[in-house]
Structures are given as C-alpha cells and as structure tokens.
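Progress against Task 2.4 (sequence-to-structure conversion) is shown through the following example record, which the project officer requested during the mid-term review.
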Amino acid sequence: MSMETTAWTQAYRAMHAEQDRRPFNRATMRRIWAFARPHRREIGFFLGLSVLIALLAVATPVLAGRVVNAIVSDGAADTVVQLALLIAVIAVAEAGLGLVERWYSARLGEGLILDLRRAVFDHVQKMPVAFFTRTRTGALVSRLNNDVIGAQRAFSTTLSGVAGDLVTLVLTLVVMLTLSWQITLLALVLLPVFVVPARRMGTRMAALQREGARLDAEMGTRMTERFSAPGATLVKLFGRPEDESREFAARAARVRDIGVRTAMVQTVFITALTLVSALALALVYGLGGWYALRGSMEPGSVVALALLLTRLYAPLTSLAGARVEVMSALVSFERVFEVLALKPLIDEPADARQAPQGPVSVEFDDVRFAYPSADKVSLASLEEVAALDTRGGDDVLRGISFRAEAGQTVALVGTSGAGKSTIAGLLPRLYDVDGGAVRIGGVDVRDLSAASLRGTVGMVTQDGHLFHESVRANLLLARPDATEDELWSALERARLTDLVRSLPDGLDTVVGERGYRLSGGERQRMTIARLLLARQRVVILDEATAHLDNTSESAVQAALTEALADRTALVIAHRLSTIRSADLILVVEAGQVVERGTHEGLLAQDGRYAELYRTQFARGERANEEAAIG
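Structure tokens generated for the chain above:
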C-alpha cells in the first residue's frame, strides 16, 4: 500500500469519526467486553491472522532486495528463481490469509452488530408508551444503525489494524536499521512532514463532512415529514409550495458548496502526500545509491529500503489516527449503552402468574396515577433537545375505584382530558399505577406475565393503526396461527368481506403506511377485525367507532355486540348509542369518578351525566337521526 493511499484512508476515517477527546470510561469498557466475550476465540484467531499477515508483508521487500543482489552479483539463476518463487508463495499466502482475515473481520463485525441491535431492539420494546411519545423516531433508529455500525468498526477494523500496524512497524524498523541506520533516521525526519498534514487535513475534512451530514440529515428530516401522507396533506392544505421549494433549494445549495470544498481539500491533500512520498523515495534512492556506488551498501538493500519505507509510513500514519478511531468507536458504544441504561418502568416479575381461565372481572382499586417526567422515560439526545423537560408528577387519576364483573360492560364518559384514556391504558399495562391496584380476575396486572396479559386484554384505539404490510399480516398480528377461514370470519363480522375481496390481491394487498390506502372507517373496521380474531376475554374500546359513518357504525356495533358477548368490556365513547346499553356508566372529571350508574338512573339524578347528555349526546343523536332520514 502506497503512503498516499494509506494516509488518504486515515483521512477518510477521520472524516467519519467524531473528534471526541473524552477519557476512557471503565464502565463502558466492561460492557464492551461483555458483548465481546462470546466472540473471544474468533478475536484471538483474528489477531493472530493480523500478526501473520504483517510478518509476510515485511518479508517480501527483504526477499526483493536479495533478488536484486543476486542479479547484480551474477549469482546463480537457481537462487533468483527460488527467491522469486518464494516471493510468489508469500504473495499467494498473503492474499489467501487476507481473505480469511476479511471473512473473520466481517464475522466479528456483523456478529457484534447482531448482538447490539437485538439488545437495543429488545430493550426498547420494554419501554413505556411515554418513551415513544417523547422520542424522535429518527434519532432512535440512528442508534440502531449508525452508532451500532460505528461500534462495530472497533472490532472489524481498528482492532486488527492496531495489532497488525504495531507488528509491521517494529519489524520494519528493525530490518531498516539493520540495512542502514543512517537512511532510516533520515527517513524518520520526514515523518512529521507526512503525518502533520494528514492529521490537519483529516480534521478539516471531518468538519466539512460533519457539516454536510448535518445538512443532509436536515433535508432528510424535512423530506420525511413533507412526503408522509399526513405531512403532504398538511402542505397541500396550508403550505406554500414556492417557499418550500426555495428553502429546500437553499439547503441543497449549501450541501453542494460543501461538496466542492471537500473535493478541493481532498485534491490538495492527495497532491501533497504524493509529493512527500516522492521526496522520501528520492532520499532513499539518492542516498542509498550513493552508498551503493561507494561500495558501503548492497544495491538490493537500497531496493529493500525503498519498499520497506512504504511499510514504515503506512503503520505510523495508521497508528497516528488510531486514537481517533478508538475514541469514535467508544462514543458509538456509549450512545448505544445510553439507551440500554435507560431502565424500563414496567418489568415482568420473575414469578409471573397466568390470568385465570374463563370469563374474568376487572377491578380498579383506589388507583392513583401521574405521568412520569421526561428524565424517567427519555433521553435528551433522543429528543434532540439541550435538556429534558423536568415537569411531571402531578396526579392525573385520583382514587379511581370501580368493578366490572365478568361479562359486564363499563362505559366511561366525560369531557376531553378528564382521564378516560388514561384509565383504559392502565388495564393492558401501558403504564403502571402509582397507587392502588388494577386487577383482572382478582390478580394484580403487575403480577401477570406479559404474554398472559396480551392474551387476555385487547384494545381498539381511536386512531386504528395498521402497518405498511398486507391485510393478512396486519390481522395475523393478533393471532399468528389463525387459519384462512378464521381470517375471513373476522372480516365478515367486521363487515369488511366485500372490501377485501375487491382489493387487487385480496388478503395479500398491502394497505400502505399506517393503512392510508384505506378510508378512516375501513381502517378502523380492520382493527376491529383484528380484535375479533384475537378473541381476548377483556376488551377496551377507546372511541372505537369515532371514525365510522352511521351505516358503518350500526353494522360494526352489531358485530361488536356479538363479539363482546360473555366478555368484560371497558368502553370510552362519545356517542350515546355505544353506552346506552352499558351495565355501568362512570362519569370521569378531573381524574375522579364523579357519578356512576345506568343511563336511566343517571338521567334521573339530573347531574353531570344529564348535562353531558343534553349538551353532547342528545344533540349528536338528533344529528345522526336527521342524517339517516336525509
């Protein structure tokens, strides 16, 4: 490898490395070793290969010098042929070992990526909903991609590079000093002329690269927001296309300018390094040739020194930038471990229980709850803010108590922000209570296993979310082992059979991001079909019919009535038709139950429910009746 190529490689790495100067963190090193321990045999063999390749790399210039000496001294042809064959054998061995080393490098690196990604992915899945409501998705995905890959370089590139470079450097210096200590020392004098520009130019290019990456990220974020279905709709409704185009063009122009500057810096850098390389070789050939003509040095030694010179500068330059690579890898590890260190608020107990068989009751016993502050569920770096919001801790629910017997339906009504959805979210353990208890079949939900809780409680939210997958895949999320007949049965009960049959690929039709290829009502009925397929014994409907027209609501309500038979249900509704037949209605205001009873009983009390009925439900029912008549 030529000196300019090696230096350029180091400059390229510097461009992609953060120039972080923090000291080594022992805790980080311990966690790194914990991830590396399962691969320790591969690491040892990998390092051994790197050392062997370094030995072969130094042997070739020495043998080349002996070939020249044999030719100049009119040595035997057999000797020249034997040396040439040995050089060929070493070259083949070096190439073969290089392939094996690359395979081990890829194996180590990809193995580490797999371990880290699985650890982060599994850990993030345990985080509460509050974590996802605060975190920027792009920042979190970056930890799984960019930072994990940055950490992987420590094993696949830096580790082998440092080991091989050290061996190559020591052996090369020993051989060069043996051949001519005078030329070796003079060659080392040129080292600062070579390394200093490499480091300075590398730092400058790193700054340009980071600025370009920042602008690219800003453009990417802007395009992601503008090109998503909701974002594109918002721009079309309220945006100014000319201003959007102007702002995007300005950002793109800045990226272009940085690209031009980077290209010029690279050209100057390569030119300077090529010049230094030529000067170093001129010194070796000039001074070495002078020694050879005087008879104080063999001609082959001059050739060997010239070849070894590249083997000397290459590892020196690599080692000069090794600290930057190591620190960059440590930063990546720390950013990954930062996510892993964020403790989930919801843990599954070691002796987790199963939910009782058969129909089960639901009980809220003096439940108090406050949404956690940001410092408990998030990271400033994931929210991309300077400091986390420390607000929080105020009770949202204060002493909520009620009981739904097995098979009963409890309806929650109240103004927006009263705490209805918060109550519903505590049942499937989207959050844990701060006081009191939530029980299913007499068992605290905190004592149940996650799998048992998922198999017992099902929920349909107001915004029915679908993945960018097929209809079949979205339904099988509820029951992976469901048969074709069961899928169609769930669709039929959700009044979706005709729609799905009319789709281009039927059950295998992709519904689009968040299900946007379907209408709001169709999307909601799809989530209800998923609920029907799951056949859970406790069902939560969080304004599940909010996006349905009168006809669809009537059809789905009939299906839900059938599906909810013998099941315990918690219903949050804004329409009277969905709560009139409830066994118990709870009126929630400011995190407290202020009234409870049946529809007729609460109307007779002429309290808060009666007021809501007159101002909200009755008006909505009249509007629905008029729309149906029309």
